[in-house]
Design brief:
Number of domains: 1
Strand content: 15-25%
CATH class: Alpha Beta
Structural class: alpha/beta
Strand order of the largest sheet: 2-7-6-3
Oligomer: single chain
Helix content: 25-40%
CATH topology: Rossmann fold
CATH architecture: 3-Layer(aba) Sandwich
Number of strands: 8
Length: 259
């Protein structure tokens, strides 16, 4: 194909389907526009070695947060790319509730980078990338499972098999507004190993979801997978929520590699 074809094709596509910022409706070729980019924040240490919950940089004394110390069954590690505020929050809302399913492919490289660069994840050889499932009724209503779209793209980028390892066995009320204990009760028993899915012995599973809030959903998924014989279960999400007093521990992300 002549070298001038691709630029011409891309120009025509931009004219017919102008690209927009992932976080807002602004026309923009980059993932985030100039207004949104400064609101994309990543976590810096110190944080819990398991779930990356921020610690008070002066007062912390334990490598585990309270939630991870008290959890009976845990994922091995969980990491999130960004703080769930600003442009990341807008992007996730547009993906989940705005029907912008194409955003999954644009956001997936951020998850892949997190897996490749985080010390806790980069040395693990994953056997399967598994999305956190939606209940069938909710997935039909939405038209897709955003976590599966993300997981599929991440699996392709990492060269790892995609597996719908889990199913949601009952519809649960939305988690919004619930505290940690209420969320744990809400999702208890809500997941099971998918019928017919063969989990390799001692497999290393990478769970993919959009947002880490309290970790209750991911811990319940890890419980099911470990009872089924998984050797390790790690999780990666686009963003995580954090208490306002810890948000100072997040810093602007350098997005130059994305553009």
């Amino acid at each position: 194909m002549p070298p001038f074809i691709d630029p011409v094709r891309n120009w025509l596509l931009d004219v017919l389907f102008p690209p927009r910022c992932a976080g807002c409706p602004t026309f923009c070729r980059k993932l985030f526009c100039r207004k949104c980019a400064p609101t994309v924040l990543k976590l810096r240490p110190p944080y819990c070695r398991v779930c990356a919950e921020p610690f008070d940089p002066v007062a912390y004394h334990d490598p585990l947060c309270l939630s991870c110390r008290s959890a009976k069954t845990n994922f091995d590690f969980a990491r999130a790319a960004w703080l769930y505020e600003g442009a990341p929050r807008g992007a996730i809302h547009r993906l989940k509730y705005g029907g912008k399913s194409a955003l999954a492919a644009r956001l997936a490289p951020v998850l892949s980078r997190t897996v490749r660069e985080e010390d806790a994840l980069k040395t693990i050889r994953f056997d399967c990338v598994a999305p956190v499932p939606l209940h069938a009724r909710r997935e039909r209503k939405r038209g897709f499972n955003q976590s599966e779209l993300l997981a599929r793209a991440v699996a392709d980028e990492l060269g790892v098999a995609l597996g719908r390892a889990l199913e949601r066995t009952r519809a649960t009320p939305p988690q919004v507004g619930l505290n940690l204990k209420e969320r744990q009760v809400n999702v208890r028993g809500a997941f099971a190993l998918s019928p017919g899915f063969e989990l390799p012995p001692n497999a290393n599973i990478l769970l993919v979801d959009d947002v880490f809030t309290t970790g209750a959903t991911l811990r319940e998924c890890a419980t099911v997978l470990k009872r089924a014989g998984a050797g390790s279960v790690c999780a990666v999400t686009l963003a995580r929520q954090s208490a306002p007093n810890f948000q100072a521990q997040f810093e602007p992300d350098d997005l130059g590699w994305l553009n």
